[in-house]
Amino acid sequence: MEKHELWQAVLSKIEPALSRPNFLTWFQGTGVMDLAGGTATICVPNGFVREWLQQKYHKSLLHAMREIDTDIKEIAYVIGQPENTGSMFKDRFLRRKRPSMPSPFMSDDMSIKELSVNPETSLNPRYTFANFIVGSFNELSHAAAQSVVKNLGTTYNPFFIYGGVGLGKTHLIQAIGNEVLTHHPSLKVRYVPSEKYMGEIVDALRNQQMGALKEKYRAVDLLIMDDIQFIARTEKMQEEFFHTFNILYERNRQIVISSDRPPQAIATLESRLRSRFEGGMIADVGLPDFETRFTILKTKAETKEIALSEDVLKFIAEKIKNNIRELEGALNQLIMASKLSAAPIDVDAARKIVASHAAAPRKFLSHKKILKVVADFYDISERDLVQHSRKKDVVRPRQIAMYLMRENLKTSYPSIGDKFGGRDHTTVIHSCEKVAQDLLINPDLEDELKAIRERILIV
Protein backbone atom coordinates (compact mmCIF):
# COMPACT_ATOMS: atom_id res chain seq x y z
CA MET A 1 0.00 0.00 0.00
CA GLU A 2 1.26 3.48 -0.89
CA LYS A 3 2.01 5.94 1.91
CA HIS A 4 -0.80 8.33 1.04
CA GLU A 5 -3.26 5.43 0.74
CA LEU A 6 -2.24 4.17 4.17
CA TRP A 7 -2.75 7.59 5.71
CA GLN A 8 -6.13 8.06 4.05
CA ALA A 9 -7.23 4.70 5.44
CA VAL A 10 -5.99 5.70 8.91
CA LEU A 11 -7.87 9.01 8.73
CA SER A 12 -11.03 7.12 7.79
CA LYS A 13 -10.75 5.20 11.07
CA ILE A 14 -9.90 8.23 13.21
CA GLU A 15 -12.41 10.72 11.81
CA PRO A 16 -15.74 9.25 13.08
CA ALA A 17 -14.67 9.64 16.72
CA LEU A 18 -13.93 13.38 16.36
CA SER A 19 -15.88 16.53 15.67
CA ARG A 20 -15.22 18.09 12.28
CA PRO A 21 -13.41 21.17 13.74
CA ASN A 22 -11.11 18.99 15.88
CA PHE A 23 -10.36 16.66 13.01
CA LEU A 24 -9.49 19.52 10.67
CA THR A 25 -7.40 21.25 13.32
CA TRP A 26 -5.18 18.34 14.27
CA PHE A 27 -4.94 16.29 11.06
CA GLN A 28 -4.88 18.85 8.26
CA GLY A 29 -1.38 19.08 6.84
CA THR A 30 -0.34 15.67 8.19
CA GLY A 31 0.72 12.56 6.32
CA VAL A 32 3.02 9.55 6.26
CA MET A 33 6.53 10.58 5.25
CA ASP A 34 8.27 7.22 5.52
CA LEU A 35 7.71 3.53 6.24
CA ALA A 36 10.82 1.66 7.28
CA GLY A 37 11.86 -0.90 9.87
CA GLY A 38 8.37 -1.25 11.30
CA THR A 39 8.14 2.50 12.00
CA ALA A 40 5.71 4.88 10.31
CA THR A 41 7.03 8.43 10.28
CA ILE A 42 4.21 10.95 10.37
CA CYS A 43 4.80 14.45 9.08
CA VAL A 44 3.10 17.30 11.02
CA PRO A 45 3.00 21.06 10.32
CA ASN A 46 4.37 22.32 13.66
CA GLY A 47 5.38 21.47 17.20
CA PHE A 48 1.93 22.06 18.67
CA VAL A 49 0.36 19.44 16.45
CA ARG A 50 3.22 17.00 17.05
CA GLU A 51 2.88 17.30 20.82
CA TRP A 52 -0.91 16.97 20.72
CA LEU A 53 -0.89 13.90 18.47
CA GLN A 54 1.74 12.27 20.68
CA GLN A 55 -0.19 13.04 23.87
CA LYS A 56 -3.78 12.38 22.82
CA TYR A 57 -4.00 10.39 19.59
CA HIS A 58 -0.86 8.25 19.54
CA LYS A 59 -2.56 5.05 20.73
CA SER A 60 -5.50 5.51 18.33
CA LEU A 61 -3.19 6.17 15.40
CA LEU A 62 -0.97 3.19 16.18
CA HIS A 63 -3.98 0.90 16.61
CA ALA A 64 -5.48 2.06 13.29
CA MET A 65 -2.18 1.59 11.47
CA ARG A 66 -1.65 -1.90 12.87
CA GLU A 67 -5.12 -2.90 11.72
CA ILE A 68 -4.17 -1.86 8.19
CA ASP A 69 -0.54 -2.97 8.17
CA THR A 70 0.57 -5.50 10.79
CA ASP A 71 4.23 -4.77 10.05
CA ILE A 72 3.96 -1.33 11.66
CA LYS A 73 5.17 -1.49 15.25
CA GLU A 74 5.79 2.16 16.13
CA ILE A 75 5.08 5.75 15.06
CA ALA A 76 7.52 8.66 14.91
CA TYR A 77 6.58 12.32 14.37
CA VAL A 78 8.56 14.94 12.45
CA ILE A 79 7.82 18.52 11.46
CA GLY A 80 7.59 19.08 7.73
CA GLN A 81 5.36 19.07 4.67
CA PRO A 82 4.11 15.67 3.44
CA GLU A 83 3.72 14.95 -0.26
CA ASN A 84 0.22 15.19 -1.81
CA THR A 85 -1.50 15.18 1.58
CA GLY A 86 -2.87 18.70 1.29
CA SER A 87 -4.79 18.01 -1.89
CA MET A 88 -5.89 14.61 -0.62
CA PHE A 89 -7.23 16.19 2.56
CA LYS A 90 -8.99 18.95 0.64
CA ASP A 91 -10.62 16.56 -1.82
CA ARG A 92 -11.73 14.36 1.04
CA PHE A 93 -13.81 17.14 2.56
CA LEU A 94 -15.04 18.70 -0.67
CA ARG A 95 -16.87 15.44 -1.27
CA ARG A 96 -18.60 15.53 2.09
CA LYS A 97 -22.13 16.86 2.08
CA ARG A 98 -22.72 19.45 4.77
CA PRO A 99 -26.31 20.06 5.91
CA SER A 100 -27.54 23.61 5.37
CA MET A 101 -30.23 23.36 8.05
CA PRO A 102 -30.62 21.53 11.35
CA SER A 103 -31.97 18.02 11.03
CA PRO A 104 -35.70 17.70 11.69
CA PHE A 105 -34.84 14.81 14.00
CA MET A 106 -32.59 17.00 16.14
CA SER A 107 -33.94 17.76 19.61
CA ASP A 108 -35.37 21.21 20.26
CA ASP A 109 -32.57 21.96 22.71
CA MET A 110 -29.88 21.03 20.20
CA SER A 111 -31.40 23.12 17.40
CA ILE A 112 -31.65 26.20 19.61
CA LYS A 113 -28.15 25.71 20.92
CA GLU A 114 -26.63 25.56 17.45
CA LEU A 115 -28.60 28.51 16.08
CA SER A 116 -28.49 30.97 18.97
CA VAL A 117 -24.81 31.10 19.95
CA ASN A 118 -23.52 34.67 19.87
CA PRO A 119 -20.79 34.77 17.19
CA GLU A 120 -18.95 37.60 18.96
CA THR A 121 -18.79 36.08 22.45
CA SER A 122 -19.51 32.38 21.65
CA LEU A 123 -21.99 32.46 24.55
CA ASN A 124 -25.26 30.59 24.38
CA PRO A 125 -28.05 32.92 25.59
CA ARG A 126 -30.02 29.94 26.95
CA TYR A 127 -27.47 29.54 29.74
CA THR A 128 -28.58 31.97 32.44
CA PHE A 129 -28.78 32.10 36.23
CA ALA A 130 -32.56 32.29 35.93
CA ASN A 131 -32.87 28.75 34.54
CA PHE A 132 -29.98 27.23 36.53
CA ILE A 133 -31.35 24.84 39.16
CA VAL A 134 -29.58 25.25 42.50
CA GLY A 135 -29.23 22.39 44.99
CA SER A 136 -26.93 21.32 47.77
CA PHE A 137 -24.54 19.87 45.19
CA ASN A 138 -23.85 23.21 43.47
CA GLU A 139 -24.94 26.01 45.82
CA LEU A 140 -21.37 27.07 46.64
CA SER A 141 -20.31 27.32 43.00
CA HIS A 142 -23.56 29.15 42.15
CA ALA A 143 -23.07 31.70 44.94
CA ALA A 144 -19.44 32.23 43.92
CA ALA A 145 -20.44 32.71 40.28
CA GLN A 146 -22.90 35.44 41.24
CA SER A 147 -20.24 37.11 43.35
CA VAL A 148 -17.90 37.09 40.35
CA VAL A 149 -20.49 39.02 38.33
CA LYS A 150 -20.87 41.64 41.07
CA ASN A 151 -17.13 42.04 41.65
CA LEU A 152 -15.63 41.42 38.23
CA GLY A 153 -11.87 40.97 38.30
CA THR A 154 -11.45 41.56 42.03
CA THR A 155 -13.06 39.22 44.59
CA TYR A 156 -12.63 35.81 42.95
CA ASN A 157 -10.03 36.00 40.22
CA PRO A 158 -9.51 33.50 38.78
CA PHE A 159 -12.72 31.58 39.45
CA PHE A 160 -12.05 27.86 38.96
CA ILE A 161 -15.00 25.45 38.88
CA TYR A 162 -14.68 21.68 38.54
CA GLY A 163 -16.90 18.61 38.44
CA GLY A 164 -17.84 15.54 36.42
CA VAL A 165 -19.33 15.40 32.95
CA GLY A 166 -22.89 16.64 32.48
CA LEU A 167 -23.32 18.32 35.88
CA GLY A 168 -23.86 21.91 34.69
CA LYS A 169 -20.38 23.48 34.67
CA THR A 170 -20.75 24.88 31.16
CA HIS A 171 -24.18 26.28 31.97
CA LEU A 172 -22.86 28.04 35.07
CA ILE A 173 -19.76 29.60 33.53
CA GLN A 174 -21.68 30.79 30.49
CA ALA A 175 -24.35 32.21 32.79
CA ILE A 176 -21.62 34.43 34.25
CA GLY A 177 -20.84 35.80 30.80
CA ASN A 178 -24.48 36.37 29.90
CA GLU A 179 -25.21 38.09 33.22
CA VAL A 180 -22.21 40.39 32.83
CA LEU A 181 -23.36 41.44 29.37
CA THR A 182 -26.88 42.08 30.66
CA HIS A 183 -25.58 44.68 33.12
CA HIS A 184 -22.51 45.84 31.15
CA PRO A 185 -23.16 45.35 27.42
CA SER A 186 -20.08 47.36 26.45
CA LEU A 187 -17.67 44.91 28.08
CA LYS A 188 -15.79 42.39 25.96
CA VAL A 189 -16.64 38.83 26.95
CA ARG A 190 -15.36 35.68 25.30
CA TYR A 191 -16.20 32.04 26.02
CA VAL A 192 -14.00 29.34 24.50
CA PRO A 193 -13.60 25.57 25.01
CA SER A 194 -9.91 24.82 25.47
CA GLU A 195 -9.78 22.50 22.46
CA LYS A 196 -11.12 25.28 20.24
CA TYR A 197 -8.53 27.63 21.72
CA MET A 198 -5.76 25.17 20.89
CA GLY A 199 -7.13 24.79 17.38
CA GLU A 200 -7.03 28.55 16.93
CA ILE A 201 -3.39 28.59 18.02
CA VAL A 202 -2.52 25.90 15.49
CA ASP A 203 -4.33 27.80 12.71
CA ALA A 204 -2.67 31.07 13.71
CA LEU A 205 0.76 29.47 13.56
CA ARG A 206 -0.05 27.95 10.19
CA ASN A 207 -1.22 31.31 8.83
CA GLN A 208 1.34 33.43 10.68
CA GLN A 209 -1.35 35.32 12.62
CA MET A 210 -0.30 34.73 16.22
CA GLY A 211 -0.17 38.44 16.95
CA ALA A 212 -3.83 38.90 16.05
CA LEU A 213 -4.85 35.85 18.09
CA LYS A 214 -2.99 37.08 21.17
CA GLU A 215 -4.69 40.46 20.90
CA LYS A 216 -8.09 38.79 20.50
CA TYR A 217 -7.82 37.09 23.90
CA ARG A 218 -5.79 39.68 25.78
CA ALA A 219 -8.19 42.53 24.98
CA VAL A 220 -11.20 40.97 26.75
CA ASP A 221 -12.73 42.03 30.06
CA LEU A 222 -13.93 38.50 30.87
CA LEU A 223 -12.33 35.31 29.55
CA ILE A 224 -14.20 32.04 30.13
CA MET A 225 -12.14 28.93 29.38
CA ASP A 226 -13.99 25.60 29.40
CA ASP A 227 -12.30 22.21 30.05
CA ILE A 228 -8.84 23.57 30.86
CA GLN A 229 -7.55 20.03 31.51
CA PHE A 230 -6.98 19.51 27.77
CA ILE A 231 -4.45 22.34 27.62
CA ALA A 232 -2.46 20.63 30.37
CA ARG A 233 -1.48 17.86 27.97
CA THR A 234 0.91 20.06 26.01
CA GLU A 235 3.64 22.30 27.39
CA LYS A 236 3.48 24.77 24.51
CA MET A 237 -0.24 25.35 24.88
CA GLN A 238 0.26 25.94 28.59
CA GLU A 239 3.01 28.41 27.77
CA GLU A 240 0.72 30.47 25.55
CA PHE A 241 -2.19 30.43 28.02
CA PHE A 242 0.17 31.30 30.90
CA HIS A 243 1.16 34.59 29.24
CA THR A 244 -2.44 35.43 28.34
CA PHE A 245 -3.51 34.66 31.91
CA ASN A 246 -0.82 36.90 33.38
CA ILE A 247 -1.67 39.87 31.19
CA LEU A 248 -5.39 39.63 31.96
CA TYR A 249 -4.76 39.16 35.67
CA GLU A 250 -2.41 42.17 35.86
CA ARG A 251 -5.11 44.28 34.18
CA ASN A 252 -7.73 43.08 36.69
CA ARG A 253 -9.68 41.35 33.94
CA GLN A 254 -11.81 38.46 35.14
CA ILE A 255 -10.81 34.87 34.29
CA VAL A 256 -13.25 31.98 34.68
CA ILE A 257 -12.03 28.42 34.20
CA SER A 258 -13.72 25.01 34.27
CA SER A 259 -12.24 21.54 34.51
CA ASP A 260 -13.28 17.98 35.24
CA ARG A 261 -10.97 17.93 38.27
CA PRO A 262 -9.33 20.39 40.73
CA PRO A 263 -5.98 22.00 39.76
CA GLN A 264 -3.87 19.83 42.05
CA ALA A 265 -5.30 16.71 40.40
CA ILE A 266 -4.27 17.72 36.86
CA ALA A 267 -1.02 15.79 36.84
CA THR A 268 0.54 17.42 33.78
CA LEU A 269 -0.38 21.00 34.73
CA GLU A 270 2.70 23.17 35.19
CA SER A 271 3.27 24.34 38.76
CA ARG A 272 3.21 28.02 37.78
CA LEU A 273 -0.27 27.65 36.27
CA ARG A 274 -1.47 25.48 39.15
CA SER A 275 -0.41 28.12 41.68
CA ARG A 276 -2.25 30.82 39.75
CA PHE A 277 -5.42 28.74 39.52
CA GLU A 278 -5.27 28.01 43.24
CA GLY A 279 -4.76 31.71 44.00
CA GLY A 280 -8.40 32.49 43.28
CA MET A 281 -11.67 30.78 44.17
CA ILE A 282 -12.08 27.03 43.60
CA ALA A 283 -15.58 25.51 43.75
CA ASP A 284 -16.89 22.09 42.81
CA VAL A 285 -20.14 20.82 41.32
CA GLY A 286 -21.12 17.42 42.73
CA LEU A 287 -23.82 14.90 41.93
CA PRO A 288 -27.40 16.22 42.22
CA ASP A 289 -29.62 14.78 44.93
CA PHE A 290 -33.09 13.36 44.25
CA GLU A 291 -34.94 16.60 45.05
CA THR A 292 -32.75 18.57 42.67
CA ARG A 293 -33.11 16.00 39.89
CA PHE A 294 -36.90 16.12 40.29
CA THR A 295 -36.89 19.93 40.25
CA ILE A 296 -34.77 19.98 37.09
CA LEU A 297 -37.19 17.64 35.32
CA LYS A 298 -40.27 19.54 36.50
CA THR A 299 -38.82 22.88 35.43
CA LYS A 300 -37.77 21.56 32.00
CA ALA A 301 -41.19 20.00 31.42
CA GLU A 302 -42.95 23.26 32.35
CA THR A 303 -40.63 25.24 30.07
CA LYS A 304 -41.49 22.95 27.18
CA GLU A 305 -45.20 23.13 28.12
CA ILE A 306 -45.48 19.36 28.41
CA ALA A 307 -47.83 17.87 31.00
CA LEU A 308 -46.18 14.93 32.78
CA SER A 309 -47.36 13.61 36.12
CA GLU A 310 -45.19 13.98 39.20
CA ASP A 311 -45.08 10.19 39.48
CA VAL A 312 -43.48 9.96 36.04
CA LEU A 313 -40.96 12.70 36.83
CA LYS A 314 -40.12 11.08 40.17
CA PHE A 315 -39.61 7.76 38.41
CA ILE A 316 -37.06 9.29 36.01
CA ALA A 317 -35.34 11.19 38.84
CA GLU A 318 -35.00 7.96 40.81
CA LYS A 319 -33.62 5.94 37.90
CA ILE A 320 -31.09 8.43 36.50
CA LYS A 321 -28.79 9.76 39.20
CA ASN A 322 -25.38 10.68 37.92
CA ASN A 323 -25.71 13.01 34.95
CA ILE A 324 -27.98 15.98 34.25
CA ARG A 325 -27.52 15.62 30.49
CA GLU A 326 -28.65 12.02 30.69
CA LEU A 327 -31.59 13.16 32.81
CA GLU A 328 -32.64 15.71 30.19
CA GLY A 329 -32.14 13.15 27.43
CA ALA A 330 -34.60 10.80 29.09
CA LEU A 331 -37.07 13.68 29.47
CA ASN A 332 -36.76 14.48 25.77
CA GLN A 333 -37.59 10.84 24.99
CA LEU A 334 -40.74 11.13 27.07
CA ILE A 335 -41.69 14.42 25.43
CA MET A 336 -41.31 12.92 21.97
CA ALA A 337 -43.39 9.90 23.00
CA SER A 338 -46.03 12.21 24.45
CA LYS A 339 -46.28 14.14 21.20
CA LEU A 340 -46.63 10.96 19.15
CA SER A 341 -49.10 9.22 21.44
CA ALA A 342 -52.71 10.10 22.04
CA ALA A 343 -52.60 8.52 25.51
CA PRO A 344 -50.90 10.29 28.47
CA ILE A 345 -47.52 9.01 29.59
CA ASP A 346 -47.77 7.01 32.83
CA VAL A 347 -45.08 5.30 34.88
CA ASP A 348 -45.38 2.03 32.95
CA ALA A 349 -44.93 3.86 29.66
CA ALA A 350 -42.02 5.82 31.10
CA ARG A 351 -40.39 2.58 32.25
CA LYS A 352 -40.47 1.23 28.69
CA ILE A 353 -39.25 4.47 27.15
CA VAL A 354 -36.21 4.75 29.41
CA ALA A 355 -35.60 1.01 29.48
CA SER A 356 -31.97 1.55 28.55
CA HIS A 357 -31.55 3.35 31.87
CA ALA A 358 -33.96 1.40 34.05
CA ALA A 359 -32.80 -2.00 32.82
CA ALA A 360 -29.10 -1.18 32.96
CA PRO A 361 -27.23 -3.71 35.08
CA ARG A 362 -26.09 -2.57 38.49
CA LYS A 363 -22.59 -1.22 38.37
CA PHE A 364 -20.47 -3.07 40.89
CA LEU A 365 -17.35 -1.58 42.38
CA SER A 366 -14.21 -3.57 41.62
CA HIS A 367 -10.44 -3.34 41.81
CA LYS A 368 -10.23 -2.93 38.04
CA LYS A 369 -12.73 -0.07 38.09
CA ILE A 370 -10.79 1.76 40.81
CA LEU A 371 -7.54 1.33 38.90
CA LYS A 372 -9.10 2.61 35.68
CA VAL A 373 -10.78 5.63 37.24
CA VAL A 374 -7.72 6.67 39.24
CA ALA A 375 -5.46 6.29 36.19
CA ASP A 376 -7.82 8.31 33.99
CA PHE A 377 -8.28 10.97 36.67
CA TYR A 378 -4.55 11.61 36.97
CA ASP A 379 -3.78 11.15 33.25
CA ILE A 380 -1.45 8.20 33.75
CA SER A 381 -1.63 4.63 32.51
CA GLU A 382 -2.89 1.69 34.55
CA ARG A 383 0.45 -0.01 33.87
CA ASP A 384 2.28 2.86 35.60
CA LEU A 385 0.07 2.40 38.66
CA VAL A 386 0.90 -1.26 39.14
CA GLN A 387 4.56 -1.17 38.11
CA HIS A 388 7.44 -0.20 40.41
CA SER A 389 7.83 3.40 39.28
CA ARG A 390 8.84 5.90 41.96
CA LYS A 391 7.93 9.03 39.99
CA LYS A 392 6.09 11.59 42.10
CA ASP A 393 3.19 11.88 39.66
CA VAL A 394 2.66 8.11 39.92
CA VAL A 395 3.33 7.40 43.62
CA ARG A 396 0.54 9.60 44.95
CA PRO A 397 -2.19 8.23 42.61
CA ARG A 398 -1.02 4.70 43.47
CA GLN A 399 -1.39 5.41 47.19
CA ILE A 400 -4.86 6.82 46.59
CA ALA A 401 -5.89 3.74 44.57
CA MET A 402 -4.69 1.49 47.40
CA TYR A 403 -6.57 3.59 49.95
CA LEU A 404 -9.81 3.42 47.93
CA MET A 405 -9.52 -0.36 47.57
CA ARG A 406 -9.06 -0.70 51.31
CA GLU A 407 -11.83 1.74 52.27
CA ASN A 408 -14.45 0.85 49.67
CA LEU A 409 -13.83 -2.86 49.06
CA LYS A 410 -12.39 -3.80 52.47
CA THR A 411 -9.72 -5.77 50.64
CA SER A 412 -6.90 -7.22 52.74
CA TYR A 413 -3.50 -5.51 52.60
CA PRO A 414 -1.71 -8.54 51.07
CA SER A 415 -4.41 -8.84 48.38
CA ILE A 416 -4.06 -5.16 47.47
CA GLY A 417 -0.29 -5.60 47.28
CA ASP A 418 -0.74 -8.47 44.83
CA LYS A 419 -2.78 -6.22 42.56
CA PHE A 420 0.04 -3.68 42.48
CA GLY A 421 2.81 -5.84 41.12
CA GLY A 422 3.26 -8.07 44.14
CA ARG A 423 4.11 -5.33 46.64
CA ASP A 424 4.57 -6.23 50.30
CA HIS A 425 1.59 -5.66 52.58
CA THR A 426 3.61 -3.21 54.68
CA THR A 427 3.87 -0.94 51.62
CA VAL A 428 0.10 -0.98 51.28
CA ILE A 429 -0.37 -0.22 54.98
CA HIS A 430 2.02 2.73 54.70
CA SER A 431 0.16 4.04 51.63
CA CYS A 432 -3.25 3.83 53.27
CA GLU A 433 -2.02 5.46 56.46
CA LYS A 434 -0.31 8.21 54.47
CA VAL A 435 -3.54 9.09 52.61
CA ALA A 436 -5.57 8.94 55.84
CA GLN A 437 -3.13 11.32 57.57
CA ASP A 438 -3.08 13.71 54.60
CA LEU A 439 -6.89 13.85 54.67
CA LEU A 440 -6.73 15.31 58.18
CA ILE A 441 -4.64 18.30 57.12
CA ASN A 442 -5.34 18.71 53.40
CA PRO A 443 -8.96 19.57 52.45
CA ASP A 444 -7.96 19.60 48.76
CA LEU A 445 -7.27 15.87 48.96
CA GLU A 446 -10.81 15.28 50.21
CA ASP A 447 -12.06 17.13 47.12
CA GLU A 448 -9.97 14.86 44.91
CA LEU A 449 -11.29 11.70 46.55
CA LYS A 450 -14.84 13.00 46.24
CA ALA A 451 -14.38 13.63 42.53
CA ILE A 452 -12.83 10.19 42.03
CA ARG A 453 -15.64 8.44 43.91
CA GLU A 454 -18.23 10.24 41.78
CA ARG A 455 -16.48 9.03 38.64
CA ILE A 456 -16.44 5.48 39.96
CA LEU A 457 -20.24 5.64 40.32
CA ILE A 458 -20.64 6.75 36.71
CA VAL A 459 -18.18 4.40 34.95
TrEMBL record:
Binding of ATP, residues: 166, 168-170
Q: A GO BP term, please?
A: DNA replication initiation
- Location of the region described as Domain I, interacts with DnaA modulators in the Swiss-Prot/TrEMBL record: 1-85
Any stretches that span the bilayer, and where are they? none
Q: InterPro entries from the xrefs?
A: AAA+_ATPase (IPR003593), Chromosome_initiator_DnaA (IPR001957), Chromosome_initiator_DnaA-like (IPR020591), Chromosome_initiator_DnaA_CS (IPR018312), DnaA_C (IPR013159), DnaA_dom (IPR013317), DnaA_N_dom (IPR024633), DnaA_N_sf (IPR038454)
Q: Where in the cell is it found?
A: Cytoplasm
Positions of the UniProt region annotated as Domain IV, binds dsDNA: 339-459
Nucleotide-binding keyword on record: yes
List each copy of the AAA+ ATPase domain by range: 155-287
Residue stretches making up the Chromosomal replication initiator DnaA C-terminal domain: 366-435
Keywords in alphabetical order, please: ATP-binding, Cytoplasm, DNA replication, DNA-binding, Lipid-binding, Nucleotide-binding
Task: Using the record for this protein, list the coiled-coil segments as residue ranges, or answer none.
Answer: none
Assigned protein family? Belongs to the DnaA family.
Listed under subunit, the entry gives:
Oligomerizes as a right-handed, spiral filament on DNA at oriC.
Entry domain remark: Domain I is involved in oligomerization and binding regulators, domain II is flexibile and of varying length in different bacteria, domain III forms the AAA+ region, while domain IV binds dsDNA.
Indicate what this protein is called per its UniProt record.
Answer: Chromosomal replication initiator protein DnaA
This protein's species is Candidatus Sungbacteria bacterium RIFCSPHIGHO2_02_FULL_53_17
Q: What is the lineage of its organism?
A: Bacteria, Candidatus Sungiibacteriota
